[in-house]
Amino acid sequence: MEEYTLRNIPIATPYVPLVAGSLARSIACITCYPVELARTRMQAFKDTKNGVKPPGVWKTLVGVVSPVNSVNRYHNSMQTYRLLWTGLGAQLARDVPFSAICWSTLEPVRRKLLGMVGDEASATTVFCANFSAGFVAGILAASATCPLDVARTRRQIENDPERALRMTTRQTLVEIWRDGGFKGFFAGVGPRVARAGPSVGIVVSFYEVVKYCLSHRHMHRQREGADL
């Protein structure tokens, strides 16, 4: 995308990380959402009775759709399995802006830091530049999207299947405001930020360091081949 914009629309090049990050996160969210739903419900509704084994991912997902089937066995199956994507809108509303903010912040900060090093870049400097940029980008993105994270969690832990299908992200945000005001929008912001900053920093820095090492190893082999 960057090569295309550089050739044809140079003014759009700075926005490539934003578009690429948003598109990648959208595909990942839609594909993996049922597992994310199971994770949230397993954390929220964990059975603490002695001798009772908490349900796994499969049983949790079956439990999401079974109440509808038990109420009306002729219920439209597509409508039933829509429950496995309960809160997807809230998830996309959270994760797409998260990726957009994260990558549009991370790329310029990373390039600025690496530009200060110039041709003297090493695995250490690549790691430090990418971790710092990822840490800052993760904190900003997590803070900005915290209200949408609260809305997504509320929708995922809704026990009434009929209400879960009717709920919208906008309605959920209104409920959060009504119940907790401005503070309600940022419930759990501390742990979310504490997780997102290091998480983004670690993922991006290790990815770039491995890429850097493999690239230099390949170049070294090419030079040895040329010398022979």
Automatic annotation (TrEMBL):
Chief location: mitochondrion
GO biological process, one term: mitochondrial transmembrane transport
Location(s) in or outside the cell: Mitochondrion inner membrane
Family matches, as InterPro entries: MCP_dom_sf (IPR023395), MCP_transmembrane (IPR018108), Mtm1-like (IPR045315)
Membrane topology (UniProt): Multi-pass membrane protein
Family note: Belongs to the mitochondrial carrier (TC 2.A.29) family.
This protein's name: Mitochondrial carrier protein
Species whose genome carries this gene: Solanum bulbocastanum
